Structure formats: structure tokens, C-alpha cells
Amino acid sequence: MAVNVIMLGPPGAGKGTQAERVALARRIPRISTGEILREAVHNGTMMGRNVKAVMDRGELVGDDVMIGIVTERLGRPDAAEGFVLDGFPRTVAQAAALDTLMTGRDPLIVLDIVVPESELARRLGMRMICEDCGVTADGHETAPGHCSRCGGRLTQRADDSSAVVLERFTIYQRATKPLVDFYRARPTFRSINGAQTADGVAADLAAAIEALNDGRVIGASGGNTR
Predict the structure, then answer these.
(1) Whether the predicted model's global pTM rises above the 0.85 cut
(2) Alpha-carbon gap, residue 47 to 22, rounded angstroms
(3) Active-site positions?
(4) Residue 151 lies in a domain
(5) pLDDT at position 218
(6) Does residue 79 lie within any of the structural domains?
(7) For 142, which DSSP code?
């Protein structure tokens, strides 16, 4: 079976780090809509110019744009054998669109990383981004304050300032958290404790994927098993 994973969780939960680990371990693509958008902003593309102000305010980019990005990306050959989605879906409308895109594919495994809000605020206050290539710092800088990928200078993300963080939490509670209710009843949904070490989270995620992908689950919605 293909491994098709969605990483859910609030800003700062570690979705990107853990999605990258799963993708490398499974040899499937990690599809980060946030990175796709930040790259577009960095490169000054038409899409990037259109979404920059929205992202800087900590607001969600419109459903049509996000669905279009994911539709195109899932249509590429490397996603046929599985993928890890990081940053999508973020609204119930996006989740419904994804269900349509999944027609004829193996079930979605939905993993919700849960972290207390106080810990999320601390993490986001420390997070940095490269001014040159736009990648979020992974904690393994080539030199203090410099990007591990290209050596560029690290700076705080515009959407990680204290005022914007509060707005992002508000938006998450209103627009994104309902996704948990949308997916909770599915046999392929699991909540993961994200307040432990990164290695601990990774181990729990791997165990959940193994359990959910062992051939017994046959539907992405409902409770059918075999």
C-alpha cells in the first residue's frame, strides 16, 4: 500500500520537521505548501506577490490557491506511491477537496500533533528563516545565525512575531482545528503527543503509521476494517 500522510497541528507543533523525517524514512515526497508559498514570495512570482501580505499578517491563503497547488503537486509521478502533506489541508473545504483528489488512491493517514499553547509560543519565538533561500532553520546552522543549506543569514519569520503569533493561534482555533473533528471518526486518524522530544514524536508517528498501514484499514472514512 502507498503511504499517504497528512500532518495536522497548530503553528509550532513541529509538523515540518516530522514530515521531513517520515518522507525520508518512507522515500516519499514531503509536500509543504508553506515552503511552496514562501519560495514563491522569495522569487517574486505572481502568486508570491499575491499571497505575501496575507502570509505576513498570519492569515490563511485562500482555499482556491491552496487546492490548486496541491492538485498540481499530487499529479506528479513521484506522488503516486505516497506522500506526506505538511500545511494542507487547513480548512474543512480543503479537506473535502482532498478527499476528492484521493479517489482511487490508498487511504489517508491523518496524524494530529498536539502541543500545549504555551510551548508553541516559546517555539515560535525562537524560529528563524533564511533570508536567501527561504528555508526554515533546522537547528543545524553551518555557523551561528547562518543557514545550513546555503549559508545565508537567519532572521525571524514575519509571521512568527508576537502579535502575528497570537493572530495565527486565533485563526487556527477558528478555521483549522475543526479539521480534527472532520477526521476524528476515521479509522486512519491518530493524535500524537508533540510535547516530547523530537525523537519521541518521530517514534510515535512511525508506530502509528505502521499500525494504520498494515493492510487492515480499507477506507479513509467510516469504520470499515478487514
Answers:
(1) no
(2) 29
(3) 15, 90, 127, 157, 168
(4) no
(5) 43
(6) yes
(7) S
Report the distance separating Cα 186 and Cα 223, nearest Å: 6
9 within domain boundaries: yes
Residue 4, φ and ψ in degrees, nearest 5: -115, 110
Strand partners, 180: none
Is 155 part of a structural domain of the chain? no
Name residue 189's beta-bridge partners. 110
Task: Give the CATH number, domain containing residue 195.
Answer: 3.40.50.300
Q: What percent of the chain has pLDDT over 90?
A: 43
Domain count, the chain: 1
DSSP 137: P
Q: Where do we find the cell 480543503?
A: 94
Range of the structural domain that residue 110 is part of: 3-115+176-212
What gap in Å lies between CA 100 and CA 152, rounded to an integer?
40
Q: With contact defined as beta carbons under 8 Å apart, do 59 and 90 qualify? A: no
Exposure string for 196-223, b = 16+ CB within 10 A, e = fewer: eeeeebbebbeebbeebbeeebeebeee
CA distance 31 to 85: 5
- On whether the CB atoms of residues 160 and 127 are closer than 8 A, the answer is yes
Instruction: List, for residues 166-214, the tens digit of each pLDDT value.
Output: 677 777 778 778 889 999 999 999 999 999 999 999 999 999 999 998 7
Cell numbers placing 137: 532553520
